[in-house]
Amino acid sequence: MSTFMFSEGVAVVPAVTLPGVVIGVDIGTTSTKAVAYDTDGRQLGSHLVGYPLNNPQPGYAEQDPQLILEAVLKSISIVVAELVQPVAGLSFGSAMHSLIGLDSDGNPLTPSVTWADSRSTRQAERLRAVPSGLALHRRTGTPMHPMSPLPKLLWFAEQEPKLFERVAHWVGIKEWVLLRLCGTLVTDHSIASATGLLDIHKLEWDREALTIAGITPEQLPQLVATTAVLPNLTPQAAAQTGLPERTPVVVGAGDGPLANLGLGAVHPGMVACSIGTSGAMRVMVERPGVDPLGGVFCYALTEHRWAVGGAINNGGIVLKWAGAALAPDLGEHSEEDLVALAARAPVGSGGLIMLPYLHSERAPHWSALPRGAYVGLTHAHRREHLVRAALEGVCQQLALVLSSVRAAGNEVREVRAGGGFARSGLWRQMLADALGLPVSFPAAHEGSSFGAALLGMEALGLIPSIDVAADLVRIEETVRPDPAAAATYAALLPLFAELYEALTPTFASIRRMAPGLPTGPEPQA
Question: What SUPFAM superfamilies does its record include (predicted)?
Fold first, then answer.
C-alpha cells in the first residue's frame, strides 16, 4: 500500500491574498538553482547547489536522488532567508527524460537515470527500426532515442528483470522531489510529454507505449496541468525550507519549454536557442505536432503552448574539449583565449568541417551512433582552424535543427539566444551567420528558473498570463548576420548534412570494433 497520495491535493490557490514573489526552482543536470522574482521580473535572490553526475560504467549517466532533494531544499532555504518579502509560492522546472524506480513507499530502488545515459541505445534503435517507431514518435512527441524513458524502461525490463518487477512507480526527478516536499505523486504534462509514454494529442498515457514498456498506468504518476497547484508543504519540508506549510507549490514544467518562457520566446515564430554544455532550438506553437520525418520533438508548456524543436548533445562541451585536446598550453578556464585563437582562422575554417558529435548526438537524426570527425584536413590547417571548425560545427548543427523546425511547418521570424556561449562576441556573430537570421540576446535572466517563476505567477493569478514574458525580457543586443559569412555557411551546410549520412556505416563499424580495441589512460582535463 502506498503511503502517499496521488492528485487529491491539487488545487488552485486564491491569488488575492498572496504577495507577488515567486521562487522558481530549476533542477538541472549538474545543479539546482532557486531564484526569487517579483511580478516585474526583478531578481530578488538566488542560490545554486551542485551535485555530481556519476558514470559508473561506459554509457551510464546517473545521480543520487537524495543529493538532488538536499540541493533543492538548501537552495530554497538560503533564498528564503535572504528575502524580506513573503513568498507567494514555489514553482518548479527540471531537466527532462530522467527515470527513477520507486518502491510502494516512494523510496528509490534505482538512481536517477538522466537524459545523458545511453545504456538503452540498442533498445532505442530497435524502436526506431520498426514501422510503428515513427508513428509512436509523432503520437508521443518524443524521439526514439536512449535519452527517453521509454527505451530506458525496456532496458530495465530486459537487463534488470527482478528489479523491474519490484518497482511500484516509475517517476522522474521532479516528481520525486515534489513527492518529498508535498506528499503527492503527480507529473505535469510537460515532463510527461518527454517520456515517450504520453499521447500528446489526447494528454493521456499512450496504450501502445505502455505495452512496449511493460508497465501499467497505475505505475505512473497522476497527470496534471503544468499550472496545477499543490496547496501545502509537508511539515518536514516547511521546516527545511523556512516556509509556512500553507505555501502553495506550482508543479511546473520541463526546463526546455521553460527556457523559451524565460527568454520571452512565447509567441509563434519566436525561436529560443540555448548553448550551454549542450544546446537546443525551440519554437512555441499552439497545437502539438511533429514533422513528417520525425526530426523534432514536441513538448508541452501549457495546454495551448507547445515547444517544437531539437536538442543537441554537443554545445559548450566542444569548446572545453578543444581546449584540452588542441590547446592544453592555454591552461584551464581558457575559453576566452580559445575563442581568440579561433578568431584568427577565416570563416569556414579554410574548408575544414567538424562534425561535433563527441557525445553522440540527438536532433535532428536522433541516433546514438555518430562520433565526432574532422573532414577536409590539409597541411595548411593549424590549430586555430581546428578550434574554429569545432565552434562552427556546433552552430551548423543548430542550423540543421532550425531546418527541421521549419520542416514541421513553423514560421521563424525571430531568434532569441542565451546560455554561456552568449558571453563570446565571436560565437554570437557565428550563430547569427550560421542561422542566416538576426539573433537577439536578452539581458541576464536565469532562463528556466525565470520561466518557472512566470508559470507559477500565472497559476497563482499574480500575472494575467505568461504572455507578459515577451515584455518583461529586455533585449541587450541584436546581432545581424554578415552577408558574406552567412553565404559561406549556407553553402557549407549541405556538405555538413551529407557527412552524417556518408559516415553512418563507418560509425556503425567503429561501434562494433570498439569493445575489442585497447583503451588508454583517461585524457587529462
Answer: Actin-like ATPase domain
